[in-house]
Amino acid sequence: MTARSGIVITGRGMVTPAGSGVDENWKRVSAGEPTAVLGPDLGVLGTQVVCPVTDFDASLHLGPGARRLDRYSQLCAVAADEAVADAGLRTGEWDGARVAIVLGVSVGGVETLTAQHVALLERGPAAISPLTMPMSLVNMVAGQLAIRLSATGPNLTVSTACASGATAIGTAMQLLRANACDIAIAGASDASLVPLVLSAFARMGALTKRSADPARASRPFDRDRDGFVAAEGAAIVVLEREDDARARGASVRGRILGYGATSDAHHVTSPHPEGTGARAAMTAALADAGLSAADVGHLNAHGTSTRLNDQAEAKAVRAVLGDQVPVASTKGVTGHLLAAAGAAETVYASLSIEHGLVPPTANLDTVDPEIGLNLAAVPRRQSIQVAMSTSFGFGGQNAALLIGAP
After folding, report:
1. SS3 385
2. Dist. CA 278–CA 258, nearest whole Å
3. Where in the sequence is the domain holding 376, given as residue range(s)?
4. Which of 98, 198, 320, 373 has its CA 20 to 30 A from that of 37?
5. Bridging pattern class, strands 230-231 and 357-358
């Protein structure tokens, strides 16, 4: 195994349905404890299961300024604070011009937009908040974080639907390799659990209808899966070149070894049925890292719990990694974090390496016989040196990341 990348993870932060903070997340994910509950009743659409972030008071973390941020920016700020502190960094003690921020976003501040639309309809234009655009634009999560952290280097928002978090981390790695920055704060955030978005997903037939038993609704790769459970949350990593991190005495949490990104160019919502784009992204990530399929000891799969995605992804995995690599989908616990999924699952993959544990795929009662992967419904203890995380999104977006041991 000869990986060539010198990009390391020095900080991690998370706010997801599995908890606030990396430690709380890992406890629940490694135990396979689902987080799904009943959410907004969508009536005749027949679904109301969601995975929300609970016990979260943004003002306790962010002070009175929290009210000027949409929920997706609030979640991101708290996750970023944890990641920066975990990296042993302090705002004001770094050269802000050498700090990049790269964040993945899907629809942006949709909670703000929908609330303001109601205000417009009920009370007219004068009722609209002057903060509507600063709170809702998709780039504002990165812009607000730059202000919070005094980071004046490259400031990017990437949007590749549910691959956005992985795309952001891969892009940040490339900025570091190109010497465009010395520190990159990367990840994603999403807070789209509003009736408009949930109804749109439901009308597509993408959401589960297992409302009578919400905890068991998200069931990746299971024979009886019937759709995904929408979730919200944020996950952030701090990335640095290894020499820089070692020079300042930072603890290394893991490595970003390789990144691959492709497009299906097939359909606006359905993946290519043979998983060709996913396969190409995985292959590209291996080539970028200078690794072979035999080096991968674990795959944190996209595994959404939809029939089409799970089948297409399984074909890609078998083609690239074979059918023996241990595979898990943490979405059985967290639901689908949408734009933030790839970022959260990168953190989970690094934790799998750190703890020597493949987390269970929650609610996996009977593996769909068409999947043909090495899945487990219980935790597995094993040494892992390299893990892969895959992410796919509407529009045929595909991204794969390789994460290595410290």
Report:
1. coil
2. 15
3. 7-404
4. 373
5. unpaired
Choose among 228, 249, 231: nearest CA to 240: 249
* CA terminus-to-terminus distance, the chain: 14
Q: pLDDT for 305-326, tens place per residue?
A: 999 999 999 999 999 999 999 9
Whole-Å CA distances, 161 to 257, 315, 339: 23, 21, 6
**Could you tell me whether strands 99-104 and 155-158 are parallel, antiparallel, or unpaired per DSSP bridges?**
parallel
Residue 323 lies in a domain: yes
> Is residue 1 in a domain?
no
Instruction: Verify whether residue 272 is a known catalytic residue.
Output: no
Q: Is residue 136 part of a domain?
A: yes
- Nearest CA among 215, 281, 224 for reference residue 28: 215
Look up 266 and say whether it is catalytic.
no
The total domain count for the chain is 1
117 is an active site residue: no
What is the SS3 assignment for 19? strand
**Radius of gyration of the chain, Cα coordinates, nearest whole angstrom:** 20
Q: Are 49 and 36 in contact (CB under 8 A)?
A: yes
What 3-state class would DSSP assign to 271? coil
Q: Which one of the listed residues 181, 272, 298, 336 is annotated catalytic?
A: 336
Domain harbouring 56, CATH code = 3.40.47.10
Kindly state the average pLDDT of the residues 5-15: 93
Cα 95 to Cα 92: distance, rounded to the nearest angstrom: 8
Catalytic residue, candidates 51, 76, 162, 181: 162
Distance CA 286, CA 295 (A): 9
Please report the pLDDT score of residue 41 as a whole number. Answer: 83
What residues does 307 pair with on adjacent strands? none
- Decide if 315 contacts 301 (C-beta within 8 A): no
Which tokens in the block code for residue 26?
A: 């890992």
